[in-house]
Amino acid sequence: MNEAEHLLPLTEYSFERHFDERVAIRWMQDNWSKSFVFCGLYAALIFGGQRFMRERPKLELRRPLVLWSLTLAVFSIIGALRTGGYMLHVLNTSGFKQSVCDQGFYNGPVSKFWAYAFVLSKAPELGDTIFIVLRKQRLIFLHWYHHITVLLYSWYSYKDQVAGGGWFMTMNYLVHALMYSYYAARAAGMRVPRPCAMVITTTQIVQMAMGLAVSGLVYRWMQEGCPSYMDNIMWASLMYFSYLLLFSSFFYQSYLKGSSRKDSKAE
């Protein structure tokens, strides 16, 4: 057990205290490969769904989308607060290096429940794409690629309790808290200023850059006892690097390219 488990400045709720992470980790070790089944069904459903909807009118689904986005927003906000509190405690008591190499995130008070909730949530989050398909919105490569790879990597990594998980999960909770709150507001018909979308995409880019940096640090410190495996570091690095490129491209295409065209026309 990590020293961060002691004197944690967070009230531990009953459901967090009674959560048995040993059962969760054992289940994931035996069943993590089922994530490939989820991803295969997901791909078949969304691309088959697009074909099915081609000659049919789009569905509005505004109220279900509000409820869906709001539910994920609340879940992500709570997750960010709980895991963020744990990570801040590790940073304050043990330093940055320990926060990267810490395995207590998977079995410590408070965080152990939210670590497992995080990896499981990547399966129902695939439902985001169903709304895009049924509402006949544009489905970009970044969207479905990101959903599939996050699910696969999260399940693959949780079973081994690898270093860096605390940073990866906490950052994702935080970004999703912002993102799903934005989606819920938009679905409810609220006028959200354009800079809000830019800020969210910027935080996603920062998340990917930080994920890549943490992966590099795990590799650097692995010989000093930072618990991980070369194949995990390789997949994490490839994943975060691809995300960094894709989200940066999305930012340019969505917020800069159009603006530069308008400026050139104005001149």
TrEMBL record:
Its main location: endoplasmic reticulum. It holds the Pfam family ELO. Keywords: Endoplasmic reticulum, Fatty acid biosynthesis, Fatty acid metabolism, Glycoprotein, Lipid biosynthesis, Lipid metabolism, Membrane, Transferase, Transmembrane, Transmembrane helix. It is an enzyme of class 2 (transferase). The keyword Transferase applies. Its EC number is 2.3.1.199. One of its GO terms (biological process) is fatty acid elongation, monounsaturated fatty acid. Belongs to the ELO family. ELOVL6 subfamily. This is Elongation of very long chain fatty acids protein 6.
